[in-house]
From TrEMBL:
<comment type="similarity">
    <text>Belongs to the Lgt family.</text>
</comment>
<feature type="transmembrane region" description="Helical">
    <location>
        <begin position="381"/>
        <end position="402"/>
    </location>
</feature>
<dbReference type="Pfam" id="PF01790">
    <property type="entry name" value="LGT"/>
</dbReference>
<dbReference type="GO" id="GO:0005886">
    <property type="term" value="C:plasma membrane"/>
</dbReference>
<comment type="function">
    <text>Catalyzes the transfer of the diacylglyceryl group from phosphatidylglycerol to the sulfhydryl group of the N-terminal cysteine of a prolipoprotein, the first step in the formation of mature lipoproteins.</text>
</comment>
<keyword id="KW-1133">Transmembrane helix</keyword>
<comment type="pathway">
    <text>Protein modification; lipoprotein biosynthesis (diacylglyceryl transfer).</text>
</comment>
<keyword id="KW-0449">Lipoprotein</keyword>
<feature type="transmembrane region" description="Helical">
    <location>
        <begin position="260"/>
        <end position="277"/>
    </location>
</feature>
<feature type="compositionally biased region" description="Low complexity">
    <location>
        <begin position="478"/>
        <end position="489"/>
    </location>
</feature>
<feature type="transmembrane region" description="Helical">
    <location>
        <begin position="323"/>
        <end position="340"/>
    </location>
</feature>
<keyword id="KW-0808">Transferase</keyword>
<feature type="transmembrane region" description="Helical">
    <location>
        <begin position="106"/>
        <end position="126"/>
    </location>
</feature>
<dbReference type="GO" id="GO:0042158">
    <property type="term" value="P:lipoprotein biosynthetic process"/>
</dbReference>
<keyword id="KW-0472">Membrane</keyword>
<feature type="transmembrane region" description="Helical">
    <location>
        <begin position="43"/>
        <end position="61"/>
    </location>
</feature>
<keyword id="KW-0812">Transmembrane</keyword>
Length: 513
């Protein structure tokens, strides 16, 4: 296991916390001014609030210092960052396919991610208050200490507030967001495994050798990582086994336990495939979100039965183990029959799946049933189990309601309501494009008018050309006529001369006559 991937070499010193907070406040102020100038009022207000909050914190902690030294890069933090990057591209890609505004969805993703981290940390703190000695320890998330369901609830609330502020319906966004939650489970649980948290109960001695090797967590070098447990550095499983005297202090590794981190990572991968395939058969908006909520609820409830870490919190009432757990699985089966099973269109297969849904509850009851009445251990549900059961059942019944509405109005069920938000930047871009289009239209109209004028001039030239040609012809005819006129006169004269000659050549009349 590698809880720390590497360390960034930094000199060992201390920095006044006042400087750090003032620098952050200055950055927030610059962001607020920029957002105000660009007319993004919502972000401008948020940045302004952050500026005031950081300034107040700088005043309160003006005498405090922050130790600086080689910066450890924790494996869990790296995996958390990687999951956010993968979720970013996955969510925005699906949002673009569904016709949601990409830029606004990007802003919503940031809000959702921040709210998810805050929510997951808050739920962990609430369920493990005795673990923290100072306020600063509550803010340190590099070593883990996040509850997945707290992240889901925090992200849900954050996105709900943001989307309502911009007049966007929640369910279309939830459908494109939950696949990134599944991918996040797949990636972050690998970080949990590298750190060693969220481990399971000890394995049976008959477990396969490869599984025992996979579930063995080592004792760390005391200088590798700081601990506040009073026990030399080691993986959480090793520390717990030492505290419970299951192993000696000098043991090099923990007992082989269920690697529940890997189990949940595989659950995340399975959910990711299920959700992406189910998108092809989606009947109504919110279907993918409700399917994820129910399916993850079932998976998480079962995984919690294998978990052995103590930092989970417990919810009353206490009931015998062989009653509480099978009863919860039976409730999940009822939820499947009422809602989720409607996805199976074949009546025979749907009926068969509904019957099989009750098999896990029956099998678990038979496995946990005590030999004699009253000897079963009483247990409580963990915080995650209680949340999984309640949200899973709520999702199943909501699925039934939305599915019935989709059967009555299939087109309306898949339609995205008209978005009521006004995106200033998009409006400006649209206005600029309209102005550019108008300019292009004017240029095209001017060119068309010039072309028409040129064509008209060409037609006039063609009409005048025959006239010009006819004028020289007439002149030539007149010139030819003028040339022929003397000739005609001359011929007339020549014709008259012989007559006169004939007249002169006649003999004179005789005197006798």
């Amino acid at each position: 296991m590698h809880p720390i991937l590497f360390r960034v070499p930094l000199p060992r010193t201390t920095l006044p916390l006042l400087w750090v907070l003032c620098a952050l406040a200055g950055i927030a102020a610059i962001v607020a001014i920029y957002q105000f100038v660009t007319k993004n009022r919502s972000f401008a207000i948020g940045a302004a609030v952050a500026t005031v909050a950081l300034g107040a914190a700088a005043f309160v902690f003006r005498a405090s210092t922050v130790p600086v030294g080689p910066l450890p890069i924790y494996s869990y933090g790296v995996m958390l960052g990687l999951s956010l990057v993968v979720g970013w591209y996955l969510t925005l890609g699906l949002a673009e396919r569904d016709g949601l505004p990409k830029e606004l969805m990007a802003n919503n993703y940031v809000v959702t991610a921040v709210a998810a981290v805050v929510g997951s940390r808050i739920l962990y703190i609430v369920t493990n208050l005795n673990e923290f000695e100072s306020f600063g320890a509550m803010l340190d998330v590099r070593k883990g200490g996040l509850v997945a369901y707290g992240g889901f609830l925090g992200g849900f609330i954050g996105s709900l507030v943001f989307l309502r502020r911009h007049g966007i319906p929640l369910l279309p966004w939830a459908d494109v967001a939950v696949p990134s939650l599944a991918s996040g489970l797949m990636i972050t649980r690998v970080g949990c495994y590298l750190f060693g948290c969220d481990f399971g109960h000890p394995l049976e001695k008959t477990a396969p050798a490869w599984l025992q090797k996979l579930g063995t967590f080592p004792r760390w070098d005391p200088s590798l990582i700081e601990t506040s447990t009073g026990v030399p550095g080691g993986s959480p499983a090793w520390i717990q086994h030492v505290k419970k005297h299951l192993i000696e202090d000098d043991a090099t590794a923990s007992l082989p336990v269920h690697p529940t981190q890997i189990y949940e990572s595989l659950v995340g991968l399975s959910l990711l495939v299920l959700l992406l395939v189910s998108r092809r058969y989606q009947k109504f908006r919110g279907q993918i979100f409700l399917l994820f909520t129910f399916a993850y609820g079932v998976g998480r409830f079962l995984l919690e039965m294998l978990r052995a870490d103590d930092e989970r919190g417990w919810i009353p009432p206490s009931l015998p183990e062989h009653i509480l757990l099978p009863l919860a699985l039976a409730l999940f089966a009822v939820g499947y029959v009422v809602g989720i099973s409607k996805m199976v269109e074949n009546p025979t297969m749907r009926r068969l799946s509904q019957i099989l849904a009750f098999v896990p509850a029956v099998v678990l009851f038979l496995a946990l049933r005590p030999e004699s009445f009253g000897t079963s251990a009483t247990i409580e549900l963990s915080t995650s189990q209680a949340v999984a059961l309640s949200t899973g059942l709520a999702a199943a019944f909501a699925f039934s309601v939305y599915h019935q509405a989709a059967l009555a109005h299939p087109e309306a069920a898949m339609a995205i309501p008209q978005l009521a938000y006004v995106d200033d930047e998009a409006a400006e871009k649209k206005a600029e494009s309209n102005v550019a289009d108008e300019d292009e239209d004017e240029d095209e109209d001017g060119e068309a008018a010039a072309a028409e004028k040129k064509a008209a001039d060409a037609d006039e030239d063609e009409d005048e050309a025959p006239r010009v040609k006819k004028k020289p012809a007439k002149k030539a005819q007149k010139a030819a006529a003028s040339d022929e006129a003397p000739k005609a006169v001359a011929t007339k004269k020549t014709k008259k001369k012989p007559v006169e000659e004939e007249r002169t050549s006649e003999p004179p009349p005789s005197e006798e006559s």
